[in-house]
Amino acid sequence: MFLALSPACGDKHSLGEWTGGDDPSGSTGDPSGSTGKPSDSTGEPPDSTGEPSDSETATAGPTTEGDDPCSQHADKASCVAAGCEFVGGDPIEVDANGCHWGEGEFGFCVSESGGGDALSLYCDPDGVPVVFPFVPFNLPADWGACDCELQGLALGCYDFAVNVGQAACGSLAAHCGALTDEASCDQFQGSPGLNGCLWVESTHEVAAEPVCNAEPPVGRCIPVYLRGDHGCFDLNPPPSCDPVDAAKSPYWGRVSDDVPPSEELELLDDVPCEFEPIGYQQCWIDEDSPALCGCACGL
């Protein structure tokens, strides 16, 4: 196994919408280092069902109910000066160029911080989705769960990174699916460590004669996770299928829940390694990889 390295617009909004304007700054505002995501990320893709998540990261936790004297301090400086603790998180923004880690101070002031040992996502009083490194046990009453209708696209930017689950209301998949050309699709990518869109070419493979589909591939826009390290692994394909380009990898997906992938599947045979398609499985990741993955090598 080896690691192979690979590789106009609108004003930012936090609610998954944008307006026309000049290109936003090239800065990603990534608060978490070179990977572009919190270090506790699971790195595992969720099942893409399009249903809202039941995860605790998408629901409001315990609140201070306004009885904490430290809650009167609205910024970190005054909070710390008063001997209190500032519970800070990283905001998520969405614009015409994709999903980004936002800049600025987002959080709240408490007498004592603490909480569950898990990443969490809540919306602030203005509706900005904010990612915390843990689940706060003292979340203020005016913070709470984000809304699929209002913040669904911003939630879709982050669901993969913390396994918030079920494609965060399905908003990102719907957004990518509505982009019908390669240029507009690939423009919506944003910061590493978050999700975006990618134009791919897929084929419909059937385990019959001929074994591999000879029809031209179909291009479309799908949601993907943007890897922070821009790398991927050779997952030991068959000897007769040594990849020509080690910076790309094939993925497979079901055509429907009641059709086994041993008989029929959708194949993405040329995905750059810095992207991981959401809702697809990488070929040869285990011994149960469908034989039809071999169609990516012309077998």
Automatic annotation (TrEMBL):
Residues 1-70 are annotated as: Disordered. Residues 21-43 have a biased composition (Low complexity). It comes from the Bacteria. Residues 50-62 have a biased composition (Polar residues). This is Uncharacterized protein.
